[in-house]
TrEMBL record:
E.C. no: 2.3.1.31
InterPro entries: AB_hydrolase_1 (IPR000073), AB_hydrolase_fold (IPR029058), HAT_MetX-like (IPR008220)
GO molecular function: homoserine O-acetyltransferase activity
HAMAP family assigned to the protein according to its UniProt record, in alphabetical order: MetX_acyltransf
AB hydrolase-1 domain: residues covered: 25-303
Lineage, opening ranks: Bacteria, Pseudomonadati, Bacteroidota, Cytophagia, Cytophagales
Binding site for substrate: R182, D300
Pathway(s) annotated for this protein in UniProt: Amino-acid biosynthesis; L-methionine biosynthesis via de novo pathway; O-acetyl-L-homoserine from L-homoserine: step 1/1
Family: Belongs to the AB hydrolase superfamily. MetX family.
UniProt main location, coarse: cytoplasm
Subunit-level organization: Homodimer.
Compartment(s): Cytoplasm
Chain's role: Transfers an acetyl group from acetyl-CoA to L-homoserine, forming acetyl-L-homoserine.
The protein, known as: Homoserine O-acetyltransferase
Gene: metXA
Length: 323
């Protein structure tokens, strides 16, 4: 329970007269509501999802630090909750999305799309509101967060908890731990091939100061500059909670409730959400289409391989309209 909740969101483009051009994007762990900034090549002018033709909505998830209520949000005269922020689930995030949808008066969503944690939200929402969504696009995600994914998240949280400043309950608490957590996470987001292609040493005589080391430090510093440790803990725990079958008999039964025409995209080199998890989704979502992106970027391919995503989207929509 929260005393109150604020939802920050962006919209782009114009709702047409028929009110049938809505595209709703769900963001992943550390992203924000400005989908044009973090999914360029897929969203934006002259992209597949173009504000000139679509009314695009993206909401910052509850628990985040980009405008929606989160661990650093004060409540009236009360201080922020920091590490005492209550446990969130993916279903709580969807409850906030649904409240915003009703607030905006959107009775029908043409396309709901999300990758990773965003895909988990999209699946859960499409199960809860099967008549609202016409098309569902999920990338690099799953029906239940895996033991492997939970273990990665726990390793990151342990790094944060090992930073004694985390327990100070200040906005800058746990920053060194967050930096280490990001370095751990990157190993699950990328691949052996990706590091080999970008961080290989040209100097055969080097014995310290490796590019791969400085890259991990650089990425950790980047996240610390724009995020906080308390939000990272809250959102990673929410991801762990993801299980569409909870309280619904089984995962297969839950996925069977989806009525949206669905495209599921996997990535060949994704070690965090391996393709067999997306194949499972396509097997149990009625009429779903499955496609796989050949990419060496690992899990991050869902943000990078926008040309491939666009290709599969074009095929999917053609087949949908033909049907």
């Amino acid at each position: 329970m929260l005393p109150q909740a604020r939802i920050a969101y962006h919209t782009y483009g114009t709702l047409n007269a028929a009110r049938d051009n809505v595209v709703w994007a769900c963001h992943a762990l550390t992203a924000n509501a400005d989908v044009l900034s973090w999914w360029p090549g897929l969203f934006g002018p002259s992209c597949h999802f173009d504000p000139a033709t679509h009314f695009i909505v993206c909401a910052n998830i509850v628990g985040s630090c980009y405008g929606s209520t989160g661990p650093l949000t004060p409540f009236n005269a009360e201080p922020a909750l920091y590490q005492d922020f209550p446990l969130l689930t993916v279903r709580d995030m969807v409850t906030a999305h649904e409240a915003l949808r009703l607030h905006l008066g959107l009775t029908q969503i043409h396309t709901l799309i999300g990758g990773s944690l965003g895909g988990q939200q999209a699946l859960e929402w499409a199960i809860q509101q099967p008549t609202v969504f016409e098309h569902l696009i999920v990338l690099a995600t799953n029906a239940q967060h895996s033991p492997w994914g939970i273990a990665f998240n726990e390793a990151q949280r342990l790094a944060i908890f090992a930073d004694p400043t985390y327990h100070s309950a200040t906005p800058t608490g746990g920053q060194n731990g967050l930096k280490a957590a990001r370095a751990i996470a990157l190993l699950s987001y990328r691949s052996y091939e990706a590091y080999g292609n970008t961080q290989q040493e040209p100097d055969e005589n080097k014995i310290t100061g490796f590019r791969a080391s400085t890259y991990q430090q650089y990425q950790g510093d980047k996240l610390v500059a724009r995020f906080n440790a308390y939000t990272y803990v809250a959102l990673s725990r929410a991801m762990d909670s993801h299980n569409v079958g909870r309280g619904r008999g089984s995962i297969a039964a839950a996925l069977g409730q989806i009525r949206a025409r669905t495209l599921v995209l996997g990535i060949t080199s994704d070690v965090l959400f391996p393709p067999h998890e997306q194949q499972f989704l396509a097997r149990y979502i009625p009429g779903a289409m499955y496609a796989e992106m050949d990419s060496g970027f690992g899990h991050d391919g869902f943000l990078i391989e926008t040309a491939q995503i666009t290709h599969f989207l074009e095929r999917f929509y053609v087949q949908t309209f033909a049907h």
